[in-house]
Design a protein that fits this description.
- It is a single chain.
- The chain is of the alpha+beta class.
- The protein has one domain.
- It is built from four helices and ten strands.
- About 30% of the residues have low confidence.
Length: about 280
């Protein structure tokens, strides 16, 4: 070999042992977020629901609304809004599960087709879902940090602040045929890590709604970081299912548990989930 060939050989070796570290880190971070989102989706479903979700890009949008107060009809609801009808209340302490956004940060998948006679149509965009959510929250609350990996048609994950710190908030609207009948596991879930002092106990109840709908209201188990939340599945008579989760901290970065209990009450979040403004 000539001197030039030897030099070229050594240059190649140096290039081969100098990998693109920045690219590797970016890919690893993206993979970690995707795996965390998948895990949250499995937690949210309680391993009992079959979920199909479409993931797209989200926009960072800030909105201004008000802290949640005692259970009552939420202010600014869209026309036709029905507040949660009086019904058997879950045990005191119903809250939902860790930041589960029931969506999968992967290549968008086809939306399941609806059964004959059931309404179908294009899913709500994240922008439409933000507008709807603003109309269902009291003035003064703040929505921020739309999760770009989990927000897409029919899915929205944001940080919700009632004036006492931001928490993870997820809402998803599933078309008919994509969610099975919501049920509670027996036995109930168990905590993965220490539950925050003052946290609501794990609980789950299903209840029949007027017209033939079924709703599952749960306070989920704490993950290894102490994160848990309210977890509500509202399956309407036409098969459309609305999922809402309100956590006790944020998860778009490393989990940060800000409070022992999620904001608001189960009754308030039931009203949000049951509102007909959510649609496919």
């Amino acid at each position: 070999m000539t001197d030039e060939q030897i030099v070229e050989l050594f240059d190649k070796v140096v290039r081969d042992i100098n990998p693109p570290v920045d690219g590797i880190i970016r890919r690893a971070e993206l993979l970690g977020r995707r795996r965390r989102a998948r895990r949250r989706a499995r937690i949210a479903a309680g391993n009992t629901l079959a979920i199909s979700a479409v993931v797209g890009a989200g926009l960072l949008v800030g909105t201004h609304h008000a802290p949640l107060g005692p259970a009552r009809p939420l202010a600014g609801a869209a026309t036709g809004h029905r507040s949660a009808s009086p019904s058997p209340r879950p045990r005191a302490g119903h809250t939902a599960s860790p930041s589960p956004s029931p969506s999968t940060p992967a290549t968008p998948t086809p939306t399941p087709t609806s059964s004959p006679g059931e309404p179908a149509g294009p899913a709500m965009t994240p922008e439409q879902m933000l507008v709807t959510l603003r109309g269902l929250l009291p003035a003064g609350s703040v929505l921020s940090n739309v999760n770009q990996l989990t927000s897409g048609h029919g899915n929205l994950e944001v940080d919700y602040n009632d004036g006492r710190g931001a928490v993870d908030f997820t809402v998803s609207v599933f078309p008919p045929g994509s969610i099975q009948q919501p049920t509670c596991p027996d036995p109930l879930w168990t905590d993965e890590g220490p539950r925050p002092a003052g946290a609501l106990p794990i609980s789950c109840v299903t209840r029949a709604l007027p017209g033939g709908g079924v709703e599952r209201d749960a306070v989920m188990y704490a993950d290894s970081q102490g994160f848990y939340g309210y977890d509500i599945y509202d399956k309407r008579p036409d098969g459309v299912t609305v999922f809402i989760q309100v956590g006790n901290g944020i998860v778009h970065t490393l989990p940060q548990v800000d409070r022992p209990q999620p904001p608001g009450s189960m009754t308030e979040w039931e009203s949000v989930a049951e509102n007909p403004a959510w649609h496919v």
